[in-house]
């Protein structure tokens, strides 16, 4: 018994320390197991969420639609309230090679006339002012390059100035036959100053039809011709030679110039 007391007295501190260590180890093991179990429960709760659970602050009746199930929004297509019928279509653009040129001038500049840029005016033919006027025909069948300008000034590319254009320029190939526009008598067949070769025919109404740029005339002054009779071939108009190949037609009643398009029946 004395030996046990001596042993306990000598080893008591060591035994107490050992007991503390064992108790601490047991407490640590218990704490680790407790934390592990709690973490396991939390992880299980995250992996298997309750479908009926709601987030704080969110109405329980609110249905959340997965992103992949969002319906695709489409722009509604509504027909026009009013539709327009019988809309005229624009004329097709002119083909290459048919470009318009500047209007050439043939008369003296008029100080009271207005000024406009040259353009290819496709003037529609106007009916004759008098049913008693003799019938006439277009001398060539080309498009209108430059129309009659009246008192308006247009730019002459050849002469480099602004003046009135007292006739109509018809596009025509060089060497093409030129028919007479009216029945009448030839009053000029030859050169006429800056206009070059000219054939002029006077009709029964006293109007003189001047065709400028008629080369190789087949008629002479004093001849009687019929509408459509060949007067010569297309040549060059000297004072309008910078323009596209054409025939210049003027109509004069005394000293006044008339619009050739308005003189044709």
List the SSEs and their pairings:
Layout lengths: L1 H46 L96 E3 L6 E4 L4 E4 L2 E5 L5 E3 L4 E8 L5 E6 L5 E5 L1 E2 L8 E2 L4 E5 L11 E8 L2 E3 L1 H4 L2
Antiparallel strand pairs: 1-4, 2-3, 4-12, 5-11, 6-7, 6-10, 7-8, 8-12, 9-11, 12-13
Helical amount: 10-25%
- What's the architecture of the domain at 144-263 in CATH terms? Distorted Sandwich
| CATH fold-level name of the domain at 144-263 | Glucose Permease (Domain IIA)
- Major beta sheet summary: 8 strands, antiparallel
Radius of gyration from the CA trace? 53 Å
Q: What's the β-strand tally?
A: 13
* Head-to-tail CA distance between termini: 161 Å
- Order of H and E elements: HEEEEEEEEEEEEEH
Low-confidence stretches: 78-88, 90-132
Supply the CATH class of the domain at 144-263.
Mainly Beta
Strand portion:
15-25%
Q: Tell me the name of the CATH homologous superfamily of the domain at 144-263.
A: Glucose Permease (Domain IIA)
- Counted by DSSP, the helix tally is 2
Class by alpha and beta content: alpha+beta
Mean pLDDT value: 74
What overall form do the CA principal axes indicate?
Answer: rod-shaped
